[in-house]
Specification:
Layout lengths: L14 H20 L3 E5 L6 E3 L23 H12 L8 E3 L1 H7 L6 E6 L2 H10 L6 E5 L2 H4 L10 E6 L7 H16 L3 E6 L6 H13 L5 E11 L7 E11 L5 H15 L7 E6 L1
Parallel strand pairs: 1-4, 1-6, 4-5, 6-7
Antiparallel strand pairs: 2-3, 7-9, 8-9, 8-10
């Protein structure tokens, strides 16, 4: 079990995770309420479960998923916290579920999901986690080669989560093109895509410009902004943003996410100045 991500932020369970996985939870809950069957595709699935390290934070309280246990919550954040707690025997939390486990906890008997992971070691852990689950297909390889092949035939609704590491410049083009391919082949799906955790809005605009140039519409951007201490010795505070694109959101997904994330931001410690926005772009 890996103790940290390679998603551009250092540890599992950070507010980047909280934001992304609340979006995922909200999308799947809404699809479940309106559709009798769904298929979920996780393009960059990881290992499935991660350790939550005990971190010293210069005497200040670390704001992460554990903070939500004491925050004012709504129905959506309650569901998300219920899933996180189900992966832990006791408090404080020691394990954090990645997106495959969160999705699996929301599966119904007729639902299914496909998990794709390129890293061989991570794939081995992931496949072991789901080896007895007939609803889950786990595949080793590149998301950019395999996601399209996992799109179901017929009128099945569902969702795709695209969450690359963005370690090379080509990932920007590949992510935008994968979104376009998914949208063209699976018009019943909601597509979620995390944007690079770099602070460079030019990267975000580049991906969005490719989507817009393709003629795509019904695109929303969810931003969760907060102050975070830097990891260097100076420990200065930086304003950071977690960003998730939502393409083709259906039903009341946007309204429910907007309400839940705004309430979450207001319930977190005032020192981090958390703020949530969702807008059409």
């Amino acid at each position: 079990m890996r103790g940290s991500y390679s998603k551009g932020y250092p540890v599992a369970g950070s507010l980047f995770d909280v934001h992304k996985h609340l979006v995922l939870t909200g999308v799947l809950v809404q699809l479940n309420q309106h559709l009798s069957r769904i298929h979920y595709i996780d393009a960059h699935a990881g290992t499935g479960v991660y350790e939550l390290p005990m971190l010293e934070h210069s005497g200040d309280e670390l704001v992460n998923v554990e903070t939500l246990l004491k925050a004012n919550r709504n129905e959506l954040t309650d569901k998300y916290i219920e899933i996180v707690r189900s992966c832990n025997r006791s408090l404080p939390l020691s394990k954090y579920p990645g997106s495959p486990v969160i999705a699996q906890k929301l599966l119904r008997p007729l639902d299914s999901m496909s998990l794709i992971e390129l890293n061989l070691e991570d794939y081995s852990e992931l496949s072991g986690l789901f080896e007895t689950n007939s609803q889950v297909f786990v595949e080793h390889g590149s998301a950019f080669d395999r996601v399209i092949k996992r799109i179901p035939e017929g009128e099945v609704g569902g969702a795709v989560l695209i969450d690359p590491d963005y370690v090379i410049e080509e990932d920007l083009n590949d992510t935008a093109n994968l979104i376009i391919q998914c949208r063209n082949k699976w018009d019943a799906a909601v597509i979620m895509a995390s944007l690079p955790v770099t602070g460079r809005s030019s990267s975000d605009r580049y991906i969005v410009s490719i989507l817009k140039d393709s003629g795509m519409n019904n695109i929303y951007l969810s931003e969760f902004e907060f102050l975070e201490k830097s990891v260097d010795d100076e420990g200065c505070e930086l304003l950071v943003k977690s960003k998730v694109l939502l393409i083709n959101p259906q039903f009341e997904i946007i309204e429910i996410l907007d309400s839940a994330l705004t309430q979450l931001a207001a319930s977190l410690p005032s020192a981090i100045n958390a703020k949530s926005t969702i807008k059409a772009i």
